[in-house]
Amino acid sequence: MINHANSVPCFLGSVVKQRMQMYNSPYRGLWDCLQTVTRNEGFGAFYRSYSTQLTMNIPFQAVHFITYELMQEQLNPHRLYHPGSHIVSGAAAGALSAAVTTPLDVCKTLLNTQENVVLSSVNVSGHLSGMANAFRTVYRLGGLAAFFKGAQARVIYQMPSTAIAWSVYEFFKYFLTKQRHEQQAAPGPR
After folding, report:
1. 175-185 per-position pLDDT tens digit
2. pTM for this model (two decimals)
3. Positions of the chain with pLDDT under 50
4. What InterPro entries does the annotation carry (predicted)?
5. Are 37 and 1 within 8 A, CB to CB?
6. Boundaries of every domain in the chain
7. What does each C-alpha distance from 79 to 41, 100, 167 come to in angstroms?
């Protein structure tokens, strides 16, 4: 259940992916984006949102696990293998985690994309850096509501992902535990 978005290759990929997804993206492809960003902004551009990503992972994982456990307590109090409860609990955990951490994700995206139109609209010249600057800029762009832009899409994206992850985890936990119990119960050689 670990979010691997903070690993180095995924982190670089996140910056490239988000920049290529921008409306009227100036990049012709992956290599063009990597080379252009490195040439114009330096390699550090791929790490501008690193602290925001790490900061986002803490509440995301905390809410994720707490929600899953609370949902299991309600839907499956005896903690038996029950795929339906694992899917529903996993989906709820992903949905709530995504919703709660959307403001950090919005700031991370702004740091990763450095959208010129957005930055110039609030008189930011050069490159935006740091989580605090990103928070101030997002607030200046649209108030509190701006922190939740894309929340619905983020929730819808996370729900199936976490539902599948938890149901697979619970299946293997059940399967391996059952196998171990069967081996322990089997009569040994005499």
Report:
1. 998 887 778 88
2. 0.78
3. 1-8
4. MCP_dom_sf, MCP_transmembrane
5. no
6. 48-175
7. 51, 27, 13
